[in-house]
Amino acid sequence: MCSVANPIRSEIDFEENGRHVGYLRLPNSVHRSAYGWIPIPVGSVRNGTGPTVLLMAGNHGDEYEGQLLVAQLSREIEPQWVNGQVIFLPMANYPAADAGLRTSPLDDGNLNRSFPGDPHGSPTAVIAHYIESTLLARSQYLLDFHSGGSSLLYHGGNMLAVEPNDAEEDSRLRSLLAAFGLPRAFLHSPNPLHSSMAARRQGAMSIVTELGGGGTVQRRLLLEARQGVLHLLSTIGVLNGPLVPWRAPHETRFYRVAGERHYVYACERGVFEPLVDLGERVSAGQPAARIHFPDTPSREPVLVAFESAGEVVCRRTFAAVQRGDCLFHLAEPAE
């Protein structure tokens, strides 16, 4: 990790007890504002002694469910109900979230492919460095809220976690996922550029969500995610009081995402026709989609098949596709 100080400055003191809200100031010298800064919303509720949890959303700017949830919880959780600290970062990559884009319009930066970041880098790299070196460095837990964004739609509520290093971590991780209690939990191989690995490097446990998507917000998913977060915060001893639900929203089933064979991609440019629905179980070789070519009416559509068996947990929302666009994403039971 680079030892150079990060240029971002916080308007709030993370050591102070009570509720505090403000902005992380990211210096941004541009034609419109020579000495300006980018406002990244941040909040903290701190009281007593206990773990620190970072609730982060807006990692990708077109994923709205988490942005609403983190902002809502920052208003709802009172300091007297907290033992430890909850940090709220509802629009982590603020330029992307403000524009409603997956990546930042300032540098085309994908925050969840930018960790550990660089304090001398582009705006997205500076944000990634601050999150890892300052916020995650003081946290024991990370909840990073994602969804399918504009181009993808996930089947209901899902959680992702990096495959554990050993049996002890596996037991602890499964307990956390069960306490959150969304219907499905995927275990996946580590990617050093993701927030989950940034958390691991700082000694924190992490859970990433995939809540719906398609550029929309589904009320049921938002309510279930809120219930799950509050139940998890209570389980780890950070939260008590009237907000705590008596149970998790669902009994979680565990899945594994096994690399390329669980993904289906467009092989040509055209119009995507799905042949299966979300939640459907499919077999290897089963037709997944047709790619049509309305600009060449005499041409027959191309059939795309699943390489592997599994459950359809995600599909593309946009009908127009280009070669290499993801059409479907599968998962298989982990047991």
CATH superfamily of the largest domain: Zn peptidases
Number of domains: 2
- Proportion of residues in helical segments: 10-25%
Spatial strand arrangement across the major sheet? 7-8-10-18-16
CA gyration radius, whole angstroms: 21 Å
General shape:
globular
- What fraction of residues sit in β-strands? 25-35%
The helix-strand sequence is: EEEEHEHHEEHEHEHEEEEEEEEE
For the biggest sheet, the summary is: 5 strands, mixed, barrel
Identify low-pLDDT runs: none
- Identify the CATH class of the largest domain: Alpha Beta
What is the terminal separation in angstroms? 36 Å
CATH topology of the largest domain: Aminopeptidase
Count the strands?
A: 18
CATH architecture of the largest domain: 3-Layer(aba) Sandwich
Question: How would you classify the helix and strand content by structural class?
Answer: alpha+beta
Overall pLDDT level: 96
Number of helices: 6
Supply database-style keywords.
Aminopeptidase; 5-stranded mixed beta barrel; 4-stranded antiparallel β-sheet; OB fold (Dihydrolipoamide Acetyltransferase, E2P); 2 domains
What features would you describe in this structure?
The structure is a single chain. By secondary structure, the protein is of the alpha+beta class. The relative contact order is 0.13. It has two domains: 9-256, Zn peptidases (Aminopeptidase, 3-Layer(aba) Sandwich); 261-333, Beta Barrel (OB fold (Dihydrolipoamide Acetyltransferase, E2P)). It has six helices and 18 strands. The chain has helices at residues 65-76, 94-99, 123-135, 167-180, 195-201, 219-235, and strands spanning 9-10, 18-27, 37-47, 52-56, 84-89, 141-146, 152-162, 184-188, 205-213, 253-256, 263-265, 270-274, 281-282, 287-292, 302-305, 310-316, 320-321, 326-333. The longest helix is centred in the C-terminal third of the chain and has 17 residues, at 219-235. It is globular and about 70 Å long.
